[in-house]
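Cross-check.
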Amino acid sequence: MGCMWIGWIEFDVLLGDIHSLKEKRSLVRPLVAELKRRFEVSAAETGFQDQYRRALIGAALVAPDHAHLQQMLDAVERFVAARPEFELLSARQRELHSED
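Predicted model, tokenized:
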């Protein structure tokens, strides 16, 4: 029987010169969509929905091996960290093996 790795990463980000939830959505939604498109992950805003300068953004994926999982999580983190409209406050990764 095969096995799989499940991994997720959650970003706590600070947004720049934002003054409303509408402005926040105009930055967060495209980022979430680009994560889904570029990396084929599940992604969503997962916290701080009522704060307009902070966001928690999560991404998750399933991979056939640990090396691929780690490579993808690292690529997602680099992508988010490189976005000038967000200040990355923290990134937390978790991994789980299907036989754990």
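The chain has two helices and four strands. The mean pLDDT is 94. Passed to J.P. for a second look.
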